[in-house]
UniProtKB/TrEMBL annotation:
It comes from the Bacteria. This is PD-(D/E)XK motif protein. It holds the Pfam family DUF4420.
Length: 320
């Protein structure tokens, strides 16, 4: 299911005295429909065989609502602001990808409602706390690595592994945790020689896993650079193309207190990625500090690594 297919279906609907609905396609096993109501609001509906276990009478966010109609045995989600129509398409595709092959109705309803709950806050037009440019640059680097991994011709990781790997927004040990390797991402200006290491634990490997330091050189470039919203849209388009789930990006952004409307506030921060380098942190001689090697009287360590001196530890270097 692609966004352009949905737009063609929306165009085939018209406003009348009652809700006009259209089955989303012939492949989806649950009875999933899109519709336009008498007020012109776009809807997504799911036909159920009985009252769902999680009964929802009516719930409304600032731009999205959900209601259960017992008489019709149908759950209806409405988008209340046309500004969010494109996002609503993405939301529908996410639900479709979750439930299209589910035969059990109760299981489909459960996924339908869970997806609504996870997406709901992204339709909120409340403004979060404005993030510093330093935070935006760090987030941009992590998102850039996701986009890089998704677009490899010979991928090392599956789509689901990439979706489950991003833990940077949750303040885990490293930014990306794969089954056999972890990545710590550092983003810097191409003019800077050093990267900052926030603690003695940041380059400590997880037992049984490889660890690589990923350094991304960025230059601020308002003409040729891209914004954080653009990199998110590139990721979204790729995920939808390959049947992935965009929810992990939404959840990560929520952890950073960013909602959909917030993204445009950072359009003046545009960056052009120049180079990405992967360093083997477990190689003999790689410069890093360990908690066990420090005096017990030292409580916290911050330090810098001069990456220009790390040529012997490079696993992969690529100009972008």
């Amino acid at each position: 299911m692609q966004a352009f297919e949905l737009n063609e279906k929306w165009n085939s609907l018209y406003v009348g005295k009652a809700i006009k609905i259209l089955r989303i396609d012939s492949i989806c096993r649950p009875d999933l429909f899109i519709g336009v109501d008498s007020e012109g609001q776009r809807c997504l509906t799911l036909k159920v065989s009985d009252i769902p276990d999680i009964y929802c009478e009516k719930s409304e966010l600032s731009n999205l609502s959900i209601e259960y109609f017992a008489q019709d045995k149908r759950i209806v989600i409405r988008v209340l602001n046309e500004y969010f129509w494109d996002l609503f398409n993405d939301f529908i595709i996410s639900i479709y990808n979750k439930i299209y092959d589910i035969v059990n109705v109760d299981e489909a309803v459960s996924e339908f409602l869970k997806t609504f709950n996870r997406w709901g806050d992204f339709f909120d037009d409340k403004k979060g706390t404005k993030l510093s440019e330093e935070t935006i640059i760090g987030l941009f680097g992590e998102l850039y690595l996701i986009n890089y991994l998704l677009n490899q011709k010979d991928p090392h990781f599956s789509i689901s592994e990439i979706e489950n790997s991003w833990v940077g927004p949750y303040d885990k040990g490293h930014d990306f945790e794969f089954p056999n390797i972890e990545y710590e991402v550092k983003t810097k200006s191409s003019r800077n020689l050093d990267v900052n290491i926030a603690s003695e634990y940041q380059l400590q490997e997880e037992l049984g896993k490889d660890l690589q330091l990923v350094v991304i050189d960025l230059d601020k470039d308002y003409i040729e650079g891209i914004s954080i919203k653009k990199i998110i849209m590139l990721i979204k388009d790729k995920l939808l193309e390959v049947g992935g789930d965009f929810l992990f990006i939404i959840d990560g952004l929520k952890q950073k207190n960013i909602n959909f409307n917030d993204l445009e506030e950072y359009d003046n921060f545009r960056y052009k990625a120049e180079k990405i380098i992967f360093y083997d942190c477990l190689a003999d001689g790689f410069p890093r500090l360990f908690r066990e090697s420090l005096s017990p009287y030292i409580r916290k360590v911050r330090y810098q690594i001069r990456v220009s001196k790390l040529a012997e530890f490079i696993k992969l270097e690529k100009d972008l």
